[in-house]
Write a structure and sequence with these properties.
Layout lengths: L5 E4 L3 H12 L4 E4 L13 E4 L1 H7 L10 E2 L2 E6 L2 E7 L7 E4 H13 L4 E4 L2 E8 L4 E7 L12 E5 L1 E4 L6 H6 L3 E16 L7 E6 L7 E7 L3 E8 L8 H20 L9 E15 L3 E2 L2 E3 L5 E2 L7 H23 L9 H34 L7 E3 L3 E3 L1 H10 L2 H4 L33 E4 L4 E3 L11 E6 L8 H4 L5 H9 L5 E6 L10 E4 L5 E5 L4 H11 L21
Parallel strand pairs: 1-2, 1-12, 2-8, 5-14, 12-19, 25-26
Antiparallel strand pairs: 3-7, 4-7, 5-6, 9-10, 10-11, 13-16, 13-17, 14-15, 15-16, 17-20, 18-19, 21-22, 23-24, 23-26, 25-27, 27-28
Length: 563
């Protein structure tokens, strides 16, 4: 392998998605897979992707990956409907079996010349120097004792540990993994059946009048995933007890949906399991040239918070930063002379993502006693979430809303331009927050959605001009009109690959507003027009460039709280 490859340890969703994303940015990577490459089907092991995460990933990296969106989310207490949320393509999460996602990612990687997966590779040694990272792996099934004899040595520019909750990378780096164990437990069953409703998810509290909770979420192919809340630390769930839960729950739902004498139809039990949610956060996410992502960096999952989705958000944040540092080190963007700028760029991954996940974990800690107490119909306040009932908090977690589920806004990002460097205007997206998915037109005349242009497909940066009326004209007519020639020239002169897009409108934006958007879909700034110097200032900030109000103290290691 090339010494410049990025080494990725772990071949789960985060590791595979990172390799695929790096390939889209033109960066070679090597995935060290401790398994044999076979992805075993587990219907009871599914994942929910928020709409923006699914768009970044393009939902199905390989055509034909089965996934479903829901039309409604209903919350019921006993027999009373207490919440009914209508969902659309833009608001529904994407629900799919995790093995289907992993198979799709592997198939997509198999077509990438810049990506390689090496199976049967167990990491046991990790060393770093100023120029790169050295890793040693032993073959699958060999002795667990680390040693320099035998096995294979690998050399790369950076290394990312995506190797799960028991991360070897994290242990070799000596990073602590603090938090709590067994915060929530659920018995899980995946079954093929017909329920009284279709394409709708249900959260049912106290279904038979006694304390309890069960969720039903549809998967493709007539499959449903059912989750029953268990005591955090209790007895094992026997197969007989789980079958009894299935039969009782289906009978209750058919009774509620079809009348007193209705009986549940036949079902095929596909898979079962017990899901235990932990709350843990690695104290460091970057150690020199090594990084942590996904379950290696954090454990989430209580109150509907989705671990795979959070891991993919890590990847979206880290991939473009690694790519930018990699290209600039190789001279592709002009060799970087300011090493502190590259350090700021790479440090921002931990600052942004660890801060976001830490806030999520704190919100779960605050919400858990409110949601799980008996009764609990009163509204309560969570920072950033407004007044919510316990059942509304649960809905937020599952649907990706509020402090328990909404995408993070990196409002204090080290990559934000200095206040005196750019003139900004207000739009409905705050700086650092994810942008809205509006229809856009490329300079070629190609039409699509804004999120579909993210992730390295068009460039490392998106520049969006709000220009009412452009949608009804062929791009040949407005490319040479008004401010377009100036803006095209300004974008082409930027030191990053950037794609210029045009939109008829954007929520809260006046005509001629120019939005500068990061490759992960977060807003850098909204400018009042095509101002070349201010566009350049935004790009310099994204590259980690030192600006007048930044001092070395702003990059000091922050105080490490538990979360």
């Amino acid at each position: 392998m090339s010494e410049s490859d990025v080494i990725i340890v772990g071949a789960g969703p985060s590791g595979l998605a990172l390799s695929l994303s790096l390939a889209r940015y033109g960066v070679p990577s090597l995935v060290l897979d401790s398994g044999d490459g076979h992805v075993a089907p587990r219907a009871a092991r599914s994942c929910l992707l928020r709409p923006d995460t699914a768009a970044w990933l393009q939902t199905s990296p390989e055509p034909g990956i089965p996934a479903t969106r829901w039309t409604r989310w209903r919350t019921q207490r006993r027999r009373q409907l207490v919440q009914d949320v209508e969902l659309s393509e833009e608001t529904s999460p994407v629900h799919l079996e995790q093995h289907a996602l992993e198979r799709g990612l592997r198939a997509a990687l198999a077509r990438e010349k810049l990506a390689r997966v090496v199976t049967g590779s167990h990491l046991d040694i990790l060393e770093q120097d100023a120029a790169g990272v050295t890793a040693h792996t032993r073959p699958r099934g060999s002795s667990g004792v680390a040693g320099r004899e035998g096995g294979t040595w690998w050399r790369g520019s950076y290394l990312v540990g995506c190797d799960g909750a028991r991360s070897t990378v994290r242990k070799l780096l000596g990073v602590r993994f603090t938090g709590r164990t067994a915060v929530e437990r659920h018995a899980v069953a995946a079954l093929r059946t017909r329920l009284p409703w279709e394409d709708q998810a249900l959260l049912h509290r106290d279904p038979d009048g006694t304390p309890g909770e069960v969720t039903a979420r549809p998967l493709p192919g007539g499959v449903w995933r059912l989750d029953w809340l268990l005591p955090p630390r209790g007895e094992l769930v026997t197969p007989e007890a789980l079958l009894d839960r299935v039969g009782t729950t289906l009978a209750q739902w058919y009774d509620t949906g079809h009348g007193e004498h209705a009986t549940p139809g036949p079902y095929e039990l596909l898979d079962t399991g017990v899901h235990t949610a932990h709350q843990r956060l690695a104290q460091r996410w970057r150690v020199d040239r090594a990084f942590l992502a996904g379950d290696a960096a954090h454990l989430v999952g209580a109150l509907g918070v989705q671990s795979v989705d959070e891991g993919l958000r890590d990847v979206a944040n880290l991939a473009w930063k690694l790519a930018l540092a990699w290209h600039e080190a190789g001279g592709a963007r002009g060799r970087r002379v300011d090493r502190d700028a590259t350090e700021t760029l790479l440090d921002s991954y931990e600052t942004e993502r660890r801060g976001a996940v830490g806030a999520r974990l704190r919100a779960v800690d605050q919400a858990l006693p409110l949601v799980r107490r008996a009764g609990g119909g009163l509204r309560t306040m969570l920072p950033g979430g407004g007044a919510r009932t316990p059942l509304e908090l649960l809905t937020d977690g599952h649907l990706g809303r509020g402090p328990l589920g909404a995408p993070a806004a990196y409002r204090r990002s080290p990559l934000a331009p200095a206040r005196n460097a750019v003139d900004t205007v207000l739009v409905d997206t705050a700086p650092g927050a994810p942008v809205h998915d509006v229809p856009v037109i490329a300079l070629t005349g190609e039409r699509g959605r804004l999120r579909g242009r993210l992730g390295g497909r068009g460039g490392e940066l998106l520049v969006l001009l709000v220009a009412p009326g452009t949608g009804v004209w062929d791009s040949r007519h407005w490319l040479s009109a008004g401010m377009m020639p100036e803006l095209v020239a300004a974008v082409e002169a930027l030191p990053l690959h950037a794609e210029l897009l045009v939109a008829e409108d954007y929520p809260g934006a006046a005509a001629h507003t120019v939005l500068v958007i990061r490759p992960d879909g977060h807003l850098v700034a909204a400018l009042p027009g095509p101002r070349t110097a201010q566009l350049r200032a935004c790009v310099d900030a994204l590259r980690g460039g030192t600006l007048p109000d930044r001092t070395p103290a702003s990059r000091e290691t922050p105080r490490r709280d538990r979360f």
